[in-house]
Amino acid sequence: MLLEIEDNETRGKLPIYKVGDRISGPSEEKAVETRRSAPKIAIVIPTLNEHKAVGNVLDGVKNVMDGYEYRMLVVDGHSVDGTDDIAREKGAEVIYQRGKGYGEALKTGFFHARKWLDAGVIVMIDADLSYDPKDIPELLAPILKDEADLVVGNRFAGMQKGAMPFVNRIGNKLLSLFAKVTLRLNIYDTQSGIRAFKSKLLDSMNLVARGMPFAIEMLTEALSSDARIHETPVSYRPRVGKTKLSPIKDGGRILGITLRLMFDTQPLLFFGSIGIVLGMVGLFLHAVTLPTVVYQYLFMIGAIQFFTLGLVIAMIKRLGRSRTRKSWKS
Ligand SMILES: Nc1nc2c(ncn2[C@@H]2O[C@H](COP(=O)(O)OP(=O)(O)OP(=O)(O)O)[C@@H](O)[C@H]2O)c(=O)[nH]1
Ligand SMILES: [Mg+2]
Predict the structure, then answer these.
(1) Is the Cβ–Cβ distance between 43 and 196 less than 8 Å?
(2) What is the number of other CB atoms lying within 10 angstroms of the CB of residue 145?
(3) pTM attached to this predicted model
(4) HSE, side-chain direction, 13 A CA sphere, residue 154
(5) Are 151 and 143 contacting, i.e. CB atoms less than 8 angstroms apart?
(6) Angstrom distances, CA of residue 115 to CA of 8, 84, 109, 247, 282
(7) Does domain 9-263 sit in CATH 1.10.357.10?
(8) Protein residues whose CB sits closer than 6 Å to any atom of ligand 1
(9) pLDDT value at residue 7
(10) Using an 8 Å Cβ cutoff, are 215 and 105 in contact?
(11) Alpha-carbon distance 112 to 185, whole Å?
(12) Cβ proximity of 110 and 199 under 8 Å
């Protein structure tokens, strides 16, 4: 991420990102000074018009994080309901996201947490009170014990009645199943928004999704980096305030990104699947047409070519990846 920011002394110790800003840091001296007094855990909270819930979320975080070295970082999407002012009053640092969307907000927050807060661990949680901050220590424990690099909260384990509409529940399950088949992601709740991870992991993740598909991209990138991913049960309650999720539009985008990620991370499976389909069409045509007709062989040749293409891309990607994997772990 190439980011630039404007330092704003009047708003407190840390810089505030404004609409249209490209984000980068203040002077290197200031960054060093900030790092010296920096906490180890950053709680990153994306907000978009969440004035009804954000205060309670931040109070909950403060209660549960007592004893940890932490900072609360609210990444606001230019809310118009005073969410940012409430967050500041509650003691959070508020920055304004670059661009638009949930994914962009988290990227802005992660970058800031890593570079200016020197956070070794980042926790992300929504600002709508659907997740309970009380679950944060459970997410942190495996990371602080160095048993995991990324921990995801599984909402299906502690879902309260009415917390997730039926359509979303089915959609989320199907998306996770699809991700299991296409991306080898063995996670029940791939769309969960409560997670903790080692910030070093960001070095090896190529995060480009702007909106809700960010959730699946982050997991796929972590898996490709050989991160140890754990899942832990969390509670999930009906949200306070208006949803920002559009089940059909966002569901479609998540599906699209899943296919793009499959192409990126599982080329053999991606091209091999196309090869299998072509091969089956070829065999079918072979069975039902006259032996003098030859176009079925074109399908067979296409199938072999797709397989070979998948194999070659997989080998090239494997070489590149083993280098990145080593670098973030060292
Ligand atoms: N900064 C920023 N935050 C966002 C944006 N979109 C959503 N959020 C926040 O991200 C979190 C998740 O959004 P939600 O609307 O709760 O989406 P969801 O959890 O998938 O769906 P529901 O909880 O069922 O409504 C909330 O805290 C939102 O305020 C955005 O574009 N920018
Ligand atoms: Mg929510």
Answers:
(1) no
(2) 8
(3) 0.84
(4) 12
(5) yes
(6) 17, 22, 10, 34, 55
(7) no
(8) 46-48, 50, 75-77, 97, 100-102, 105, 126-128, 130, 193, 239, 243-245
(9) 38
(10) no
(11) 28
(12) yes
The pLDDT assigned to 21 comes to: 41
Please give the number of the atom of ligand 1 that sits closest to the Cα of 128: 27
With the most atoms of ligand 1 within 8 angstroms of its CB, the residue from 57, 96, 124, 126 to mutate is 126
Please name which of 129, 57, 213, 34 lies closest in space to residue 221, comparing C-alpha atoms. Answer: 213
pLDDT per residue, tens digit, the chain (330 aa), is: 333 333 333 333 444 444 434 444 445 565 555 444 435 899 999 999 999 999 999 999 999 998 899 999 999 999 999 999 999 999 999 999 999 999 999 999 999 999 999 999 999 999 999 999 999 999 999 999 999 999 999 999 999 999 999 999 999 999 999 999 999 999 999 999 999 999 999 999 999 999 999 999 999 999 999 999 999 999 999 999 999 999 999 999 999 999 999 999 999 999 999 999 999 999 888 888 776 667 888 888 999 999 999 999 988 888 877 666 656 777
pLDDT at 328: 75
Round to whole Å and give the CA distance between 268 and 263.
8
- Ligand 2 centroid–CA 321 distance in Å is 33
Q: Are 245 and 255 a contacting pair, CB within 8 Å?
A: no
CA 264/CA 160 separation, integer angstroms:
36
> Which of these, 38, 31, 330, lies nearest to 200 by C-alpha position?
330
Residue 283, Cβ neighbours under 10 Å: how many? 14
